[in-house]
């Protein structure tokens, strides 16, 4: 049971990151390889704010995603937009190159060893069957609330309607008078902000180091593929699912724990090539 | 209202339109007829801005279109009814209706849409593509009426519909004509076309080969139907 809970907490990070990747992929058709680096920047943002300016965790939880969102907006306007009409390979090169640059910049300053970040809540909660660190429960709650809020916006608001339409058929959406290009920038910024939020949440729990995103993002890509490319709902659900599967795998088949996710991904793809919640036509 | 002058269009090396010139006046319903592959869809896509490999001029109420992005054309008053109906699967029926902004002076209200198409009212919460083909076609028409578009570009709205539904599309086209809406309509069924339209252009191999009025079409109905392969 405790392992399931551990899994849900890991899944909280997968879900937040996969959700950002999915909305960005849906709206821009860009596979954002720099997503792991943005997550890492989120964690370092919190760390730097604390050590250099004494800004506490709770403030960082708001400030860092905002700053990263702004960074995403600038990045989209300045660079990503210019590649829109070119081969997707250019986007791969850009986002991958950006990852290396960001990682190396932080490596220069902080080296590769992990930086400690004091947990903002040190209490434990009695969950009936077992005791659990309150901070982990907070992370899970935070992730669930954010995912639900995003779901609400996507399914119930006009902005969500435009994002869904533009994700499905961008050219047709334009034919109905909607300037899809104008919505691309905020959506990208928002996806980056989500990665930043996940990073801040990770700082007190995970090792803050320049490679933390690179380790995680491979799994997150598998999560997005399992959930179904372009399906935000699928990405979130697969995020929590993979968290739990990974955690249980760790317990019962520790030898396979690293590869389990990819075995699962292969199995899902054989069974449903478009992923659990993907639409078949998204493949063509 | 719409003036097309020596419009040529290509798909890569293959030329789909060859110096097409035509005009549609305000309040007119004009059809484009022609065999499969004649270039009818390509012509409408050029007007909407969905096809970009072209030369020549397209003017809508004096504004040169080729310089304008697609969404600006829609906001000027062009209403798009795509040949595959263009219904969004990830939007409900009602969201499909509400997605586009209102762009014209005389838009249909949601209430009027639902009165004219009770089926859409019943299914307003369904995903758009869960409707039958005929219902999707109604939705595609209703959507541009709600926008209040002044020039409708309709690509075979009656294709594959039952005679009853074709009848209903005909009623709507006649109704909006009295409202002053202008329509450029692709329609293979010339028998139906003469009941809704004022004039007709016959396209063949990317060219306008004939401009016909209703009387001429009626007189040559059999010949035309045979030529079009219906
Ligand atoms: N996407 C495309 N790529 C290459 N060629 C195309 C494409 N679409 C159409 N064509 C070609 O352009 C020509 C005109 O096609 P278009 O679709 O405009 O014809 P149409 O009159 O609408 O025919 P239909 O009655 O079948 O709808 C055809 O020869 C067709 O093969
Ligand atoms: Mg066609």
Describe the secondary structure blueprint for this structure.
The complex is a heterodimer of chains A (284) and B (230).
Chain A: H1 2-28, H2 35-53, H3 57-78, H4 88-110, E1 124-126, E2 131-133, H5 134-156, H6 158-168, H7 170-175, H8 180-202, H9 212-227, H10 232-252, H11 260-271
Chain B: E1 2-11, E2 14-24, E3 29-34, H1 40-48, E4 54-60, E5 63-64, H2 70-76, E6 78-81, H3 93-98, H4 110-116, H5 118-122, H6 133-147, E7 151-155, H7 163-178, E8 182-186, H8 190-196, E9 199-204, E10 207-213, H9 214-219, H10 221-228
Parallel strand pairs in B: 3-8, 3-9, 6-7, 7-8
Antiparallel strand pairs in B: 1-2, 1-4, 4-5, 9-10
Magnesium ion is lined by residues 40-41, 83, 155 of chain B.
Bound molecules: adenosine-5'-triphosphate, magnesium ion
Mean pLDDT of chain A: 91
Oligomer classification: heterodimer
* Poorly predicted parts of chain A: none
What this model shows, in words?
- The complex is a heterodimer of chains A (284) and B (230).
- Chain A has 11 helices and 2 strands.
- Chain A has 284 residues and is mainly α.
- Chain A has one domain: ABC transporter involved in vitamin B12 uptake, BtuC.
- A two-stranded antiparallel ribbon of chain A has the order 1-2.
- In chain A, helix 1 crosses helix 9 and helix 2 (35-53) packs across helix 9 (212-227).
- The termini of chain A are far apart.
- By secondary structure, chain B is α/β, with parallel strands linked by helices.
- Chain B has a single domain (2-228), classed as Rossmann fold (3-Layer(aba) Sandwich).
- In chain B, 37% of the residues lie in helices and 27% in strands.
- Chain B has helices at 40-48, 70-76, 93-98, 110-116, 118-122, 133-147, 163-178, 190-196, 214-219, 221-228, and strands at 2-11, 14-24, 29-34, 54-60, 63-64, 78-81, 151-155, 182-186, 199-204, 207-213.
- In chain B, the strands form 2 sheets. Chain B has a 6-stranded mixed beta sheet with strand order 6-7-8-3-9-10, sandwiched between helices. Chain B has a 4-stranded antiparallel beta sheet with strand order 2-1-4-5, covered by helices on one side.
- The chains are: A mainly alpha (284), B alpha/beta (230).
- At the A-B interface, helix 6 and helix 7 of A face helix 2 of B.
- Bound molecules: adenosine-5'-triphosphate and magnesium ion (MG).
